[in-house]
Amino acid sequence: MSRMKSIDPSIKPGEATPPRAAERILGVARDLFYRRGIRAIGVDEIVRRAGVTKPSLYRSFPSKDELAASYLREYDLEFWERFDEAVDAHPGDPRAQIKAFLIRVGKRTQKTDYRGCGMTNAAVEYPERGHPARVVSEANKQELRRRLRAMATAMGAGDADTLGDGLLLLIEGAYISGQLFGAGGPAQSVARNADLLIEASLKK
Questions:
Q1: How far apart are CA 201 and CA 196, in angstroms?
Q2: How far apart are CA 119 and CA 93, in angstroms?
Q3: In this predicted model, what pLDDT tens digit does every residue of 159-188 receive, in sequence order?
């Protein structure tokens, strides 16, 4: 399902359907950016694969940087959809919520086309503060940290901030090790390791 209406800066309030060219451009850019990295992909390749012209791209996205940010905004929306699905499946039970979310993360890391977290990858590619892609990535990670700390508090952890940060470190480690080891790697057990960390934290 396209979410271009929510993220494309060229869409004006009240427009029911985004331009088809913008949809194709973002779809192609998303695939290429995720698989090969944002810096590695030029505008020429994007427009060629999307079957559009450069003017069409720049009418929807003022720059490649803004196209990258739009890709990440869409990624962000889908990330929180998955996270909220896990939360909604276990109302009032943050420990089960985290476990459900991380089970899915662990399964995704075992896929042959897995390239980690698009947000993490973008932050590594763009270390400079203020870059549009970096801004979206940082906001996603800050919100994840806030939510994990809040969930740790709801679990009754004595040191909730440390537990929340520990869970975040496990998640980021799964994203990276999933790319390094592939199928059968340590990322497949991220949910189990998170549960052990939670158990140890709650006993203190």
A1: 9
A2: 27
A3: 999 999 999 999 999 999 999 999 999 999
Please determine, for residue 204, whether its predicted confidence score (pLDDT) is greater than 80: no
Q: Are 180 and 160 in contact (CB under 8 A)?
A: no
DSSP three-state, residue 63? coil
DSSP code, position 65: H
Cβ neighbours of 98 (radius 10 Å)? 28
Q: Is the pLDDT of residue 198 over 70?
A: yes
pTM for this model (two decimals)? 0.87
- Cα separation, 58 vs 115, in Å, equals 28
Cβ-based burial of 69 (10 A; exposed 0-12, middle 13-18, buried ≥19): buried
Q: How far apart are CA 173 and CA 102, in angstroms?
A: 12
CA neighbor of 148 nearest in space, from 107, 188, 201:
201
Domain segments of the chain as ranges = 4-203
Helix axes 43-50, 20-36, angle to 10 degrees: 130
CATH code of the region 4-203: 1.10.357.10
User: Does residue 159 sit in helix, strand or coil?
Assistant: coil
Cβ neighbourhood burial of 52 (10 Å; 0-12, 13-18, 19+): buried
